[in-house]
Amino acid sequence: MRATGILCVAAVVLFVGLEGRAQQRPAAANDPRIGLKPGLRDAGEAARNMERIASMPKPEGFFDPKAPGGTPTPPERDPNLPPLDPDAPPDPRFANMLSFANSDLAFSGNHLFMGSFHGFNTYDIERPGKPKVLASIVCPGGQGDVSVHGNLLFMSVEQTRGRIDCGTQGVSTPVSAERFRGIRIFDITDVSKPKQLAAVQTCRGSHTHTLVPDLHDSANLYIYGSGTGTVRSAEELAGCSGLKPEEDPNTALFSIDVIQVPLAAPQNAKIVNRPRIFADPATGAISGLWQGGTHGEGTQKTSVTNQCHDITVFPEVGLAAGACSGNGILLDIRDPKNPVRLDQVVDKNFAYWHSATINNDGTKVIFTDEWGGGTRPRCRAADPLTWGADAIFDVIETNGSKKLRFGGYFKMPAPQTETENCVAHNGSLIPVPGRDIMVQAWYQGGLSVFDFTDSTTPVEIAFFDRGPIDAKQLITGGYWSTYWYNGAIYGSEIARGIDVFRLKPSEYLSQNEIDAASLVRVEELNTQQQTKITWPASSVVARAYIDQLTRSKSIQPQRARDVKSALDRVDGLRTGQEKGAAATLDQLDALAAQLEKDAAAASGRDADRLKALAATIKGRAVKLRS
Prior knowledge:
The chain is globular. It has a six-stranded mixed β-sheet, with no helix packed on it. A five-stranded antiparallel β-sheet has the order 3-28-27-26-25, with no helix packed on it. A five-stranded antiparallel β-sheet has the order 8-7-6-5-32, with no helix packed on it. It contains five helices and 32 strands. A hairpin with a 2-residue loop joins strand 6 (111-116) and strand 7 (119-124). By secondary structure, the protein is mainly beta. The protein has helices at residues 511-519, 539-551, 557-571, 581-601, 604-625, and strands spanning 2-8, 11-16, 45-48, 50-57, 102-108, 111-116, 119-124, 132-138, 146-149, 152-157, 182-187, 195-201, 208-214, 217-226, 257-262, 270-273, 310-314, 319-324, 327-332, 340-347, 353-358, 364-369, 390-398, 401-410, 427-430, 437-441, 447-451, 459-466, 479-485, 488-493, 497-503, 524-525. Helices cover 13% and strands 32% of the residues. It folds into two domains: 2-525, YVTN repeat-like/Quinoprotein amine dehydrogenase (Methylamine Dehydrogenase, Chain H); 539-625, no CATH class.
C-alpha cells in the first residue's frame, strides 16, 4: 500500500509503507537450500531448475596466500556506520580481507572481465562450460568494478591505498600525490596485456560507474561516476570540499561525476559536470532529498542522500534509475551530460538503495536494498521479507512526465543462517520474450531467477545456493553478481572464484522460452548500461509466445495447435520455393491476421503477446519469401 505526503526539505516524495504487497508465500520447510553443509571448497549445494556447468577458483595472486583458498573479503562497508577516516591505518581485523574480493563482471565477445579489490582477471568463455584464465592484472584500489566499450576497459577505484601506477606498495604520505581514487581507463586491444591510458581523479573516488553513450554523438562516451567514500582534502586534489552545503555551495557532496571520454583520444578523459540531481526544484537547495535517520518506530537507519551507489542507464528510452543512499530516483538522460531528475521515492523498508534494473520496455524499475551493507546475515527466518529485498516500481506517465509507482517486493525466500551474509545484490535481465525475468545475486543466499512481469506478484523460477563458508563464524562471501550473457549465467563468487550455470525447463519456464532467450546475442554487456533487446522472427520465439499464452489460458487450444502445425511445416522448408510452400506461407499470414483480431479482444500482457506472436510468424513468412 502506498501513501503520499512525506515532506523532505520541501520535496514531496512517494513513501512506500510497511504494508507493501507480499511477494509470494515463504519457502517451504523442505526447501533444499535449508541446512546445507558448510565449507569453503566442499559446501553443500542445492539447485532447482538450473545446473552449475563450470567453476573456477581464483587465479594465483588473487587470494591471500596465508589463508587456504584465500581470505574472503567484506565487499562493502555498512553505510549506517560512521564514515572512515581515509588516512587512518586499516582495521587489523580486515587488513588482509580488504584486498582480494571478487567484484563485478563485464563481457565483450568471448571474454569475461571480473573486477576485484586487487585488480581484474580476464577469462575466455568461448565454451561457457570450460572457462579459461587469459590474464590477471594486479592493480589494487578497492571495489574494482569494470565495464568495457570496444577496446577500452574502465575500472572503479575508491580505497585510499590505490596508486596512480597500480603499485602494490600503497601510498607514502597521508596527503599523497601518488594516491589514485576515481576511474582508470585501460586499452585492452591485447586482452593479455592491458595498458593504462588514463586515470581520472575524483573527489570521492569511484565506488561504481556507468557507461553512457550519447545517441547523437558517437565521438564521445560519458561515464557517471558514483563515489560513496569520504571527500579528499583540497591539498590532495584541488577543488574537493567535504563541507555541508550551507558551509560551501561547491561541496563535492550531493552530486555525481560526469566524465567525458573522447573515443579518439581516451587519454584526454575529464570531468565535465557534477550535476546536482538531488536538488529541491522549489528552493534550489542541493540537499533536497532524504535527510537520513529512521522512518519511524521499527525501521532501520538510512543515510542522507548525498550520493548514488549505482546508476543504471537505458539510453534508447532516455531514462536512468539511480539507487542513491536514501532514495530511488528516475532520471531523464536524453542529454547525458546533463541528467535531469524526473521523480524520487523513499521506502521505509529500505536501509540503503543499492542498485537498479530497468525492464526491456522501460516500464518497470527494480531497486535493491543492501540492508546491513552486504556483510551481515539478513535472510534469517526472523528477518522480514520486505527488508534487504527488491522493490519493484512501475514507470507511469503522469501529467506529461514519467513517475515511479510502487508495485511489490521480492526477496530470496529460503531462510539462511547466522553465518551467511545475505541481502539483495547485483543481477540482470534474462531476455525471454514476452516476460520480465531477472537473475539476481544474494551473496551467501545464492542466486535466484524470478519473474516480475506482474510487478505486484513476483515469482521465483529457479535458484542455486551453497552452504555457509564456515559453520561458526560469518566470513563474507557469496555472489557479488550473477548475469545472463549469450545463453549462460555467470556468477562472480567473492571468496571462491567464478561459476557458470545453465537454465533447465520447468513448469515456470519452457525449453522454447530458454531457447528464445539464447537467440539474443550481444557483443558487449555492461549491466548498468542497458540496451534494447530484440528477438528474430524465429519459430522458436513464436513457440515461446505460444507456451506463455497456453500457460495463461489466453489462446484457444485449436489456434495454438494450428500455429504449431504451420510452424512445423515452415521449419521443413529450406528456400520457401518448394512445392506447397506458398500455401503454407499463406496459412501463416492468415493465422497472423486471426491472432491480431484475438489481440484486439484481449488486454494487458496477453494482448501484447498475441500481437508479438502475430508479428513473429508474419516475419517468418516474409523472410522465407525474400
